[in-house]
Design brief:
Elements (H helix, E strand, L loop, with lengths): L5 E12 L2 E12 L3 E5 L6 H8 L7 E6 L5 E4 L11 H6 L3 H14 L6 H13 L2 H14 L13 H14 L4 E5 L7 H13 L3 E5 L3 H7 L2 E6 L2 E7 L14 E2 L7 E9 L2 E8 L8 H7 L3 H12 L2
Parallel strand pairs: 3-7, 3-8, 5-6, 6-7
Antiparallel strand pairs: 1-2, 1-4, 8-9, 10-11, 11-12
Length: 309
């Protein structure tokens, strides 16, 4: 049996904006080579968690441990702006100073009257920084994603701009790839293409999406953020059935006295229900109670096994 290897461990993370608590002392371990899906209602802190992991924000409390030498890259929700920048220019931005040198060199190389002295100096700097290997990586990523390096962003559709952003986030060869709503602006064939890109990715991926079919295709584990807390993290068994719609809530008998709500996936051979609150006064369907009651004790035992394993 292989040992589980965590590449990132979040401990007691807390984030608030004024009086609004976004993440309330959460713990999360991200394992090597897994495909972790993060779910939760809008505003629950999913994007905040990704920004923390990407190093773009700091928690108010708690720590994030990274495996030594871990490379992290993030795909944000926002698209690159339409401009006269070429696709090569944008993807090269993933490499900071070396990327800037390569941008300048490629611009001069395609100029009708290049400054040869400047090109020579740039070439020396690129060689010093092992930049030609980076240049090869950029071009290989652009080619793999079906893009044209010399094409500008000015007239690209939203779907093609998303591909450019994906290429920029992948070019640095990350160990942990963070994707925030990656299917935005993509049509169905492009989403299917992205499923293949994520499946072929050799590192660990963490995905936020409301597209349940997409998550079912790519994710192996789910972490649900609810009321500022990650309630559980459950490994996918045969399939993940992630539903944005929830069943009606129902107050169960007094000996259990919990409100249960069908949550979004299968665990072992039985559906999982999430304990939401106690005696929440919401309408319910009698037929649902009849279905739930025989499984309540088994369900709570399964939840405990997941939460406290």
């Amino acid at each position: 049996m292989n040992d589980v290897v965590s590449i990132v461990t979040c401990t007691n993370l807390h984030v608030s904006f004024g009086e609004d608590v976004i993440l309330d002392h959460i713990d999360l371990a991200i394992e090597k080579n897994e495909r972790l899906c993060v779910t939760g209602r809008n505003g629950s802190g999913k994007s905040t968690l990704l920004r923390l992991l990407a190093g773009e924000a700091e928690p108010d409390d708690g720590t994030i441990w990274y495996q030594e030498g871990l490379r992290v890259s993030a795909l944000p929700q926002t698209l690159p702006e339409r401009s006269q920048k070429t696709i090569f220019d944008v993807v090269a931005e993933a490499f900071a100073e070396t990327g800037s040198l390569l941008q300048q060199y490629h611009q001069l190389a395609t100029s009708p009257d290049p400054d040869m002295n400047l090109m020579d100096r740039l070439q020396q700097q690129i060689e010093r920084d092992d930049g030609w290997n980076i240049d090869h990586r950029i071009m290989a990523t652009i080619d793999r994603l079906g893009l044209i390096p010399s094409e500008t962003l000015m007239h690209l559709s939203g779907g093609w701009l998303r591909r450019v952003a994906i290429a920029r986030s992948l070019a640095a060869d990350p160990d942990l790839w963070l994707l925030d709503e990656p299917t935005n602006h993509l049509d169905i064939p492009a989403i299917q293409w992205l499923e293949g890109v994520i499946s072929d990715f050799q590192g660990t991926a963490m995905v936020i999406s409301h597209d349940r079919h997409f998550l079912n295709a790519v994710c192996t584990k789910i972490a649900d953020i609810d009321y500022e807390t990650i309630i559980y993290s459950v490994k996918k068994t045969n399939r993940l059935v992630l539903l944005e719609e929830t069943w009606p809530v129902a107050s169960i008998s007094s000996d259990i006295s919990h409100v249960v709500q069908r949550n979004a996936f299968d665990y072992l051979d039985a559906p999982i229900y999430r304990v939401v609150s106690k005696d929440l006064p919401l309408p319910y369907a009698p037929s649902l109670i009849e279905e739930i009651l025989p499984n309540v004790k088994k369900t709570i035992a399964a939840i405990n096994a997941v939460m406290y394993r």
